[in-house]
Batch of 3 targets.
Target 1
Amino acid sequence: MKDPIRWDNLTSKEIGLLAQENAIVIIPMGSTEQHGPHLPVGTDAILAEWFSHRTAEALRSQGIPAVITPTFAVANSMHHMSFPGTVSLHPGTFLKELKDICSAIAAHGFRRIAIINGHGGNTAPALTGLVDINLELGFPVYFMEYMDGTDEKPFLESQECMLHACESETSLMLAYDESLVDPVYKTTKGYPGYTTEAEDRGFLKTFHRQETHTENGVMGNSCLATREKGELLAKAATERLAGTLSDPRIWGLSV
């Protein structure tokens, strides 16, 4: 069945009309990487697309035209490459692909573009890339994490924000499609931090391979995940995302 929210379901003419309507274009950005023994390697892309779709639906319910592009599903996952199933771009390739995507969308007349990201490894290169992208396009392309910590804290037992294949992320996948989650999550735990206290507290930053943090690829306690938590998390995050993008003050700005 045709989904009018999906760019790839629309005709060229329909996309042209959306540009004339000054529609918000949402780019779901995820990854293809290991997520422990219980979640699929597409988890970040799946959830980024899910939240992008939910956000576009919420915007449309307010009378704001919105559409989601095909998902940016292979991104910056170099730190996971020691685990089977991970597919990654080098940062330079990532930056070029992101710029090309944003430039192509803008070439069709769109001036309201936002990225909804589902993978922490994308944050630094994406924000770096937006400096050049925004200067070239002349208007701001925005970057948003689908979770920002404030959404999660009230609902989680063992952590305050998303880690990796953890209580939060596993709960969201259970809410999205329980069949994609291996039941081994019920007994799975992973190291919840970095290599030193300074890194845990954010005073010290560098590149590490994921196995320096965790042997099983998990950071956090997936064993505490539930579908009910995932539903609550999804509702709170969608409300924040749609509320942010519906604010007219962020659009119409020039760089």
Target 2
Amino acid sequence: MLKDRHYIEVTKNVVYASAKGKILIDAIGDQILASPEMTAKWEQKLKEISEGAASPKQFMENTNKMIQHVVIEGAKISNQWSFSEDDRNNFTPGKKKQFGSPTKLGSCKKCDGQIVDKGTFYGCTNYKVNKCNFSMSKKIMGKSITQKAVKQLLSNGKTEIIEGIKNKEKTFNASLIWDLNEQKVKFHFENNQPSLSTK
């Protein structure tokens, strides 16, 4: 359910909190719902219910009361919320009817289409017209790729340096570039190291 509602993302069997999930975590803050102690108590209570030693009805009633309390308290401090620019740029609200066209981020590198935000990735408006396969994930090796970075890539062929990119072996800093020969997005290092594929 967390995946279906876009609170988490799973890439190559690694689970990441999405921008939506991070914003929810920040909004809840230090309230009891976010505490490891509460998770442990819930696990214990669920075990007791499965063993017939506790009432599921009472558990649900208490849970509903706690959630109502969390929502009320969260609303009281909503004017103090401060979410990172990265999370705000990558946050996609719940499904709703959209009016007008999605924001165009720049010209496609493969055809005469436009690149737009498609929710979980960036893609070309000409996909249905000529099957243009330009696409770019919103998360590459655990790092969120913002609309600002995509605009830089499309207009300049290169983004600013993105810090904290992680692979299985190490953490590194690199820019994203458009490789004209291979027709794909790659990592670019400033110290003359060869470029590296993002996939």
Target 3
Amino acid sequence: MIEPLFTYLFYSFIGLALIQLLFYWLIFGQLAFRKRKSCPNLEPVSVVICARNEYENLKENLPLFLAQDYPDYEIVVVNDASDDETYYFLKNLATQHKHLKVVNMGETPNFFKGKKFPLSIGIKSAKHDLLLLTDADCVPAEPTWIMNMASGYCKKVEVVLGYGGYEVKPGLLNKLIRFDTLHIAMQYLGLAIAGMPYMGVGRNLSYRKSLFYKNKGFISHYSIPSGDDDLFINQVSSRKNTAVVATPEGITLSEPKSSFGEWFKQKRRHLTTGSLYKPQHKFILGTYSLSQLLYFVTGIILLSWLFQWEIVAGIMVFRLITQIIIVKKCMKRLGEKNLLLFSPVFEIIMMIINPMIALSNLIVKQKTWR
């Protein structure tokens, strides 16, 4: 009775390992190895930033956006009813920089309590068709950030996906946060390069204003607080109109959370929209996550009972080598450091944390973006 069961588990393990290897080489490998297609582009750009009580972040970060090496761009900052020193800081800074446009919003009947309304106002206020979106707690990694993101706009491209990383800080939590961000990027950037774009991140995202209006903005999911980045991209992106910029010079960096509780809360907000993705995207992402979990479960069971353990161990070592090769290449493309040795352990940790976050989202609903 036991022998047929372990035989079934053994062949299931081989199938699951094959699925995992296909994801690594055919999807994540797109980001790791595919040469970037760049198109010189100096089209005028509007950088849109929404801020609610972000005085300290704006004071530190906004000068770096205003000092970008690009011939024609504006910075549009939407002050979303802040009650700190944001208004006075922006008012003073706008007198010093002609390419800074400030849009002040008072308390409005924004019943949906999300970022989408102020972001829509910012997009409406932008004077250029090419939009580049980021957050007040982000900084451009290099003065050529706009230049790099704009270079993704080759013929027929209407959406450019970028990488929004986190600053390197001491401690394991920082490494876990950066690994999780990298791993998610390997999925959405890899799938986009492979012709199946499904999301972007608001920390570093670009699309055309005309595309925003053509698809009636966020109207189809306006009642949902989150999703101004991933749900919109899931709605409007396609194989033909989407490009990826994956260079260390084209990324933004954010201040990472310093406590597990704050990061857990942030992750909860980020994972509230996945159930609304298109069916094909949910199937692909679900296949990866489920095969990943079952791969480890069946592998551990087989090794524990020493059933075909030489083959099982060999397959697991081969997958581990594959993971190290692909992750290392992706780290280089996205400017990440000091994560490689931790990646196998962090992968298992995130397999435990993500279901916990999904369960908590079923129990408690979040209503605000800040």
